[in-house]
Amino acid sequence: MSMRVGVSLGTTTDVAALSDQIKRYRLRDLPEPSSAQDALNRMAGAGSAQQKPTTGGDMLFNGHKATHHDHTVNPGKEPLRDKCLKVIVANFARLPVTEGACSPELMRMITGHLPLDLDPAMGALHVFDESYWKRRCIDRLGWSQCDLMGHGQIWKQLFFETYLQETLEDFGLPPGEERHPDHLTTVHHHIMGGPRVKDTRTEKQKLFEKLEAGQDNVFSLTIKELMSHLPAESFLSRLPNLAKLSLTYSVRKTGMARLRMDFGMTEADASGMAACLADAPRCCPSLTTLSLPGNLLDDDLVRVLMEGLVRNDTVTSLDLSHNKISNGGARLLSKLLGEESVLTSLNLADNAIRSEGGRYLGRGLRANDSLVELNLRLNRLGDEGGRMLLEGVRSCGHGSGLARLNLAGNSLGAGAAKALGDIFAADFGAGGSGAGGATAGPSGVLSSKRSQAQTQRSAGLASPSRSSAPEGGRGPGNGTGLLGGGSGLVAVDLSSNGLEASEVGLLERRLANNRSLISLDLRGNPAHAAPEAADALAAIAKLTRQNELAAR
Questions:
Q1: Full set of structural domains in the chain with CATH
Q2: How far apart are CA 272 and CA 239, in angstroms?
Q3: Rg, C-alpha atoms of the chain
Q4: Which of 157, 336, 373, 496 could be joined to 409 by an S-S link, Cβ 3.0–4.6 Å?
Q5: Are the C-beta atoms of residues 505 and 536 closer than 8 Å to each other?
Q6: Using CA atoms, how far apart are residues 453 and 369, in angstroms rounded to an integer?
Q7: Residues 414, 397: Cα–Cα separation, whole Å
């Protein structure tokens, strides 16, 4: 911007003299141009709240981003608090600041500028700010992989559960290498007793230190491959808060380097897991959900696992799906369904259980009052095996708490349909024997352990709003909640079986007065495409919908 002054010469001519043009304008005294960083900071305007979080040695104090090579900040004018914060952050790994040593505001400022590559062991003990762990999870995993709902809605828990999962999965790989098909053979040699690659005492000690550092923040662990075949006791005993474990001994992305011995649980693995389950108070005191899918478990390995399962009273949910369990394994597992059972969920989907195995499981269900969910999808029960299984459920009467039953893909027919119809018809005559009443088993008296399991299931699984009907009535809230609670089946899956139109009609007639069933899946059966079964299917759909609305 310029200012015009008086003109002395050349005013009467058409063209002003050069000297006159120079004298007309005079320059204003402007401050020295600031750096580009200062201009950006002035344009931001909002201060540090709108700044991108800094990493490494970059610091952000009083709305100004300063690096080791930034000379625009005058150290003499920098506040003492900012200088202290810089020193604390730079030396946090060596001299950490604990919670309570300073005000919450200053602690948030410190954690807000900590580097994202801080040692997790140090962060687990001294960093509790969720904003820091959120930034770290997004930096490591990206937004698409941050499943906060599956990790207690806590960012610190999400970080350590995924961090320890990757640590256990990577343990045993060659030093400094990522997963690669060429390394699978080397890892296999190490497992079978060949040349050791990484499994030295030092490496194991580092692994154990990481596990112990994150033990207070790990409640659920999903291991999709464990090539090192570490003994279960070595990591379960260092995670006392672990409540849910899903473990698969497998190798992903193998390409053409696939070896049969790289897949599935070995006898040593099963023996180690059984020892942990048998000594639950020491090894896994909080473990309630155990999933071992896709481990090529056969009847022999199930026998080894049963040595620990029969002595365990903490695991209430057991998943052995996608294995090779047949009738012998079903006979062993039926021992977990006796009067002293604490299991509430059993998943045996996609195995090789035939009709004889259905008879064993049905026999175990006769005296069971704790099981809420049973999944036998994609087995080979046949019509005879399905009938004997359902007769076992029927024999237990309303002492059974079974609410969800999946028998899809088992070639069921008329016999199984008749047995299931009897259960549906018996559900109507239950009277006041729902979750709120005193329910006796086949022997007339519940043992203390069964009574405790029934009480826990009713308190933990049933919704209070669905169990408030008057005692002894048959209202929608008395024993007919969405999870049953001793009142009968709530959801049944019979899809992809061999049910004809006559069997569907039988089920429709048996369901006429049922008040507990809210879902019955009959897709994939011959009757589903038969015109003569259309009315029965529509009536079943209407009834289940009415029951669902009444149970809300």
A1: 64-122 (no CATH), 147-246 (no CATH), 381-440+473-552 (3.80.10.10)
A2: 16
A3: 34
A4: 496
A5: yes
A6: 8
A7: 21
